[in-house]
Amino acid sequence: MLVRAARFLLVLLVGLGVLTSVAHGVLSRTTRRWFERDVELRARLAVTSARRSLVRHWDSAHQGALVEALTDITRDERVMGTAACDVDGRQRATSEGFPAAFACPTVLARLRAEGLALDTPGGWTLNVDLPGGPVHLYGVALTEVSPDGFVVVVHDMSFLERREATTRAQLLLAFFVLALAAAGVTVIAARLAWRGWQADLRRALRGDGGREFQPLMRDVRELVARLTQERDADAPTGVWSPERLRGVLTQHLQGERVVIVANREPYIHQRTEDGGVRVVHPASGLVTALEPVMRACSGVWVAHGSGSADRETVDAHDRVKVPPGEESYLLRRVWLTEEEEAGYYYGFSNEGLWPLCHVAHIRPEFREADWEQYRKVNQRFADAVCDEVDSDDPIVLLQDYHFALAPAMIRARLPRATIITFWHIPWPNPERVAICPWRDQLIAGMLGSSILGFHTQQHCNNFLDAVDTFVESRIDRENNAVVQGARRTLVRPYPISIEWPVRWLDELPSPEDCAAGVRRELGLRPDALLGVGVDRLDYTKGIEERLAAVDTLLERHPELRGRFTFAQLAAPSRTRIARYQELNDRVEALANKINERWSTGDYRPVVLLRAHHEPPAVFRYFRAADLCYVSSLHDGMNLVAKEFVAARTDERGVLILSEFTGAARELTEALVVNPYDLGEASEAMAAALAMPAAEQQERMRAMRSLVAHFNVYRWAGRMLVDAAQLRSRERLTDRLTRRLSDPGRA
Length: 746
Ligand code: F6P
Known about the structure:
single chain, 49% helix, 3 domains, binds 6-O-phosphono-beta-D-fructofuranose, globular, six-stranded parallel β-sheet, Rossmann fold, alpha/beta, Beta-Lactamase, ten-stranded mixed β-sheet, 23 strands
């Protein structure tokens, strides 16, 4: 036995030796590529942020300023130096200590030898091996200077060799320890092994005996195969599309019909003054995100029928096929009485939960009568869901703060349902949650969900803290789950997004034509500078702060008076609530005040367009604008920011974004500001209006690529993949539990 173990150990060591050298080769090639890419990115970022001052001081009589701008780039300890060169090789200036071996003419000569173009978009790189170690050169053309020039950044890469040596040593040590451990375990296992048992096990795994293992192995194999498929579906490669989302449904969820529940309906039928019926697309981030998902998945959307012609357009089961003309899914309308709507929607949801969840300094109001209606309406929607499902384990997607109680109500009637609840607004800290007299019931209701989604990890953490404070349960922090008896609720961040590409853009003119058309319509000069804001008239959106920032901008920048106009598209919202009426009046008064202060002749700096705008009209303004300012005081995500980015197929325009939006975590190339800081916000607007086209393009391109990849199909796909995994696990657990309690059943 010992001789055999020694022989085994020898073979293992030789094998590991070979493996180590292969692994090391692969590892060092990969890490070298990573480091080179990292260095290039750093160099590019450093030049981008110094670009404005390089351009400003290029021709300056005092070399000092240009040298200072170059020295700024060399803050990273690995940068050996930076030089500013003219295209003919003349050296304008260098940072201190710039290596003479890379003087401008030498760099030019190398570039030519490598066949690289000086004006390669995004810059070019060269790797040079010197006796002291490798060196990395990054250069980029500056076309805004005269004569055309370029900047070159030299990075010392000798650290690569040091890192490689350390990696090699660590790898050898790791494999050696592994080999010893593996050999030890093998010897012990060999000694303990029982031949007969092994033979039985082998037969069982082959499937020619050991009947007791067969069902278990089949289940496990099935599970592994499904999990692998699901992982592949969620692999970060390729862009998510409606087809890919449909694929997830058919592959992983057997094409099950999805039931979505949201208070707002995607299509509202309104009676027009001439007696006709008009279809309205509501101003709602939720609808913007979910409607494309429903088109892709089909199924049923259960919503409050709030349009004046809604009742006339449904069938006997209160259903209507939508979208009009395409009819790819069903809209099931739930009717509410005036009293129910007042208590559930205006009262508990929008005077209670909405201000509770947003840090916008509006006191939440909680009334017992509203709570009663909220409970009653949640039950009505839960019952409607149970009417619509076609199995006892359906997939139900519940949306938003209007339905905190519905998950547990649906679970009570359909214990095997997969319920995914997504909370579209922020979730506050436990101190704030404590304000709500019915906080325990709300949280317990939400825990009826299988998966509970928020936009950010911060909101998930806040929710878990609230569960910890108010509800009896166990929190599995490692897996971000709440465990109550045999039931688990996973709590996960799923940052929401928009469809990509946006379908409304197909029917719109080019950005240049939109710019000209909108300026004409607003009576502006063709070269006028235009900013836009697009929101529901809601106190969380910071519309007053936004207009005040426009006022400060004109105060601080006289050159913009008469040239810059800010158009605010404001959709009236929740108008029966006093706070919203007051906001409407205050915004109007502020716009008038700013206009009185800065108007001259026909010029008015603020254009307030208080009306519902259909999506094509909104996208036309996005395309026409030089800047878009999203100034929310607190916002779960804010999809206006992503829509602006999607609209700019010309890669122009600047997004100014409040740091208090979920979107600011993703769209980092926006100018991110604190909307309460009027100085900062107004300077961001000034910077946006003066931003060179190349910088606009660079920022916009990066944001467009992010939104294209992290689109709403991915958002929904990830939730459905997680749901599918959960279902597989639950079904397997079910089967095993049944088998253990009744071993006779296969
Ligand atoms: O995004 C938050 C949200 O409350 C959505 O839930 C809602 O659809 C949207 O804002 C518009 O609000 P409302 O449906 O009350 O008009």
